[in-house]
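Q: What would this chain look like folded?
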Amino acid sequence: MNKCLKEACGVFGIYSKGKNVAEFIFYGLQALQHRGQESAGIAVSDGDDILVFKDLGLVSQVFSEQNLAPLQGSIGIGHTRYSTTGKNIWKNSQPIYRMFNDEVFAIAHNGNLTNTDEIRKEQMRKDIRFETSTDTEVIASLIENSGCLSLEEAVKEAVDKIKGSYSLVILSKDALFAVRDPHGFRPLVIGEREGDWIIASETCALDIIDADFVREVDPGEIIIIDKDGMRSQMMLDVDRISMCVFELIYFARPDSYLYGKNIFELRHRMGRQLAIESPAEADIVIGVPDSGTPAAQGYSAESGIPYIDGLIKNRYIGRTFIQPTQEIRQIGVKLKLNPLKEIIRGKRLVVVDDSIVRGNTSKKVIQMLYNAGAKEVHMRITSPPLLFPCYYGVDMATKKEFIASHRTLEDIRKYLNLDSLRYLSIDGLVSAIGHSKDKFCFACFNGDYPVPVNEDIYPEKDFTDSEDYINSDILKANH
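A: My prediction, written as structure tokens:
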């Protein structure tokens, strides 16, 4: 249901000893499609030069046999994007192609920098111009304009200057780099396949190409893969590991693994914990597809209330360019989800979902359930109430738009027209995850930001992409 929470991007990289890698990257990006649906791109190196192809749209829309065929090379990176910094226009798509000391490189980024404004202004004072409004170009600019002798040293120098969340893949003509920020906000994993090395946002992208999971890239670590193999270095001091807990609740695919634990199983345990904390008298449990399904099954297992697929999701919805009137918005919700009336009619329902942002979509879905004949609807949410915006790579509402920031639990229940509403507690969430609380970022729930943020520099979703704006002295960081 949660169309208001969108992940920043998915990244993929591969170093092969002779195979053409473009098709492997294509399939890896398809496995990461859930992390971004606005644009997709692939960059490959043939040892002499780097060729990039990217466009707006889903991976399957952007790439075909015809445009994959020219992408010949044994090293490459890929990116699938949802914009958190910069509008969804072609020039903001990735990978970004740049030069360093007459050497080409390409870069792709998952995350969001918190000091973009500061670095961009500093670069512009040096008469350095920008073509896009992305923070990824800020990283590329630091590398491109470095005084270092090698690309590896330039990457290290750039990473030492940036702050916030970043999982990076960087391609040179003969090497693949991977970097994860010292807080580990966004996932990044290493795989191996028949002597080839793979870097990906999630383990599900390794599975699709039959690669074996090796380990996660550690927070603060840089990985360098070249003709001599893979080596790594801890570049940055790690004082607080803070993986985004919403990776576990919502973003990561259920067949992926993080911290050695399967995401489906973790969500199942969240549902179990929710049933312990917030029981309900009901006839059936249903989940809001897809992220609510494992938790709903867990709620059912713990409570003994039967689980049934009560909402059917249409998995073949493309993006629409119709301007959304209120009537069209309602049709849009019905296109994505349709209740099974024969199952729902006359039943008391427990409806399990991952979160409530503004409440608008939840309200429509709940009304559909009542229209389908539900006798009672009790909603259970597998996250605590969302209260604070994210500055580390998730496109969330502003603080004033979160329904829980200005309404009580009872107010929200009445607004959604529910018979009861309960959220999972932070302690319950931690218990279900089974790892120490201090390994995760809970800022969207409690306002405890691991990297300090000047909230004044984040305008209210008013993104501008004119060249004057991109290179303006009064440029403000976009989120």
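The CA atoms of residues 387 and 446 lie 7 Å apart.
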